[in-house]
Design brief:
Layout (H helix, E strand, L loop, with lengths): L3 E4 L1 H24 L5 H16 L6 E4 L2 E3 L10 H7 L13 E5 L23 H14 L3 E5 L7 H9 L6 E6 L6 H8 L3 E7 L5 H8 L4 H14 L3 E7 L9 H11 L4 E5 L17 H16 L8 E4 H4 L14 E4 L5 E2 L16 H9 L10 H4 L1 H10 L9 H8 L9 H8 L2
Parallel strand pairs: 4-5, 4-11, 5-6, 6-7, 7-8, 8-9, 9-10
Antiparallel strand pairs: 1-2, 2-3, 11-12
């Protein structure tokens, strides 16, 4: 079982200092070799310090000798962490994207009502085409690969091919329901630079969990898979998508208790989105008071002494706020490639800029990046879900995301809001 330690108090202060010194010394040779001017090196350091200041609300957690300061930032120290840092040394062009979510299959044993892939119908893309794109992405600066399905372990050979095409310049996490996991497969994946398996747990009650997943054996599969991960010395994380009422009826606390019991390293708290199976769904909104209340709960678990032994929480409701990152979709920090090969700004935004089986990936990616120059304070997946739903219904679309032609009707007329403080300041530091 992986040893998991939360870094708090004086140890956190020392860790922050060590990290900053290490990054400074790691990139100093770029200055000596003449690859960057003194002015830009100083600006790079300022960018890094400002970016790191935006992460101090997180509970830092050491997993297997590497420390996670944010879910989508590779553990420190590692080559993958330094890959992520290279984002801030880019001055002559857009800062590169550092995270991608890739679906290797749409196959799944379950039928979750909220699934953002609910209507993603079509044949899985040729695996060699996908691995070619993955290799290209790593050369472009992707530091964190989040690989999922459907259920990726149902197509284990496809999963392996993707993982083996990624070297230690990047960190790999795999999302799974647990179906198809074996200890032998986990041990094999550990040799391929896979850091953790992330499971979905949207309720702590076994009966409700099974009903939600659409299978009487879902809970048993989940728990046994977690235990296999521990036996294989593979880190475990969970994601949980909770409705507003779950923060008022103690369900959130029950999930955290169960996560602690299962020796989970971290919990990703996903904000419900009107996307996929919930596209067009009403009553998902959180009021300002709700958001304030939820943030206070997350702060308690991440900061207070009595919750020190609980998993670290990385909450979208905080990360997407305008005073942290805002919306970083579209390759600003992250984007999504679904199982059919559609390039989407993120998994929750059901539009496509093109399909890698039909067009050159670089052309699709650059077209997307032209729409996403900076991080904004508007959550596009929420603001434009009704418009996407109307087009989906009007044209009797067979699947999601919307075709590139229909998608263009969305992104050519939308308003992304204002730049967040982070990206506005990063842009000025040039």
């Amino acid at each position: 079982m992986q040893k998991i330690d939360n870094i708090t108090g004086f140890h956190r202060y020392i860790f922050n200092l060590k990290l900053k010194i290490h990054v400074f010394l790691s990139f100093l040779p770029e200055l000596f070799r003449g690859r960057i001017t003194l002015k830009r090196f100083i600006l790079f350091v300022k960018r890094m310090l400002f970016f790191l200041s935006k992460l101090q609300h997180n509970k830092f957690i050491r997993i297997g000798g590497k420390t996670k300061i944010d879910l989508y930032i590779p553990g420190y120290p590692s080559k993958a962490f330094l890959t992520a840092c290279k984002k801030f040394i880019q001055f002559d062009d857009k800062m590169p994207c550092t995270t991608v979510l890739i679906s290797v299959t749409s196959a799944c044993m379950y039928n979750c009502s909220h699934c953002y892939q609910k209507h993603d119908k079509g044949k899985d893309i040729q695996i060699d085409l996908l691995t070619d794109v993955v290799k290209n992405l790593q050369n472009m600066g992707i530091a964190f690969f989040n690989i999922e399905g459907g259920e990726p372990f149902l197509v284990y050979e496809r999963l392996k091919k993707v993982c083996t095409s990624i070297d230690e310049r990047s960190e790999i996490w795999i999302n799974s329901t647990g179906v198809g996991i074996t200890k032998e497969r986990l041990l094999e994946l550990k040799k391929m630079n896979v850091t953790a398996i992330m499971f979905s747990m949207h309720n702590s009650n076994q009966g409700i969990f099974n009903k939600f997943m659409g299978s009487d054996s879902a809970w048993e599969t989940f728990e046994s898979s977690v235990h296999m991960c521990h036996e294989a010395d593979m880190a475990v994380a969970i994601n949980t998508c909770l409705l507003k009422e779950d923060f008022y009826n103690n369900q959130f606390e029950k999930i955290m208790e169960k996560a602690k019991e299962l020796n989970v390293s971290l919990v990703q708290l996903i904000k419900p989105k009107p996307t996929g199976g919930w596209l067009g769904k009403e009553n998902l909104e959180f009021t300002k008071d709700d958001i304030k209340y939820i943030k206070s709960k997350v702060w308690q678990y991440n900061s207070k002494k009595e919750f020190e032994k609980y998993p670290s929480i990385f909450a979208q409701i905080i990360e997407e706020s305008e005073d942290v990152f805002g919306c970083t979709a579209g390759g600003i920090d992250r984007f999504y490639i679904n199982a059919k090969g559609d390039v989407q700004p993120c998994e929750f935004l059901n539009i496509s800029f093109g399909n890698i089986s039909e067009e050159c990936f670089e052309l699709i990616y650059n077209k997307m990046r032209n729409c996403f120059d900076w991080g904004g304070d508007c959550n596009l997946c929420e603001k434009y879900s009704k418009d996407i739903y109307k087009l989906y219904k009007k044209h009797n679309s067979a699947s999601l995301p919307l075709s590139p032609v229909l998608s263009k009707q969305i992104y050519t007329s939308w308003n992304r809001g204002n730049k967040t403080e982070l990206y506005e300041k990063l842009e000025k530091l040039q």
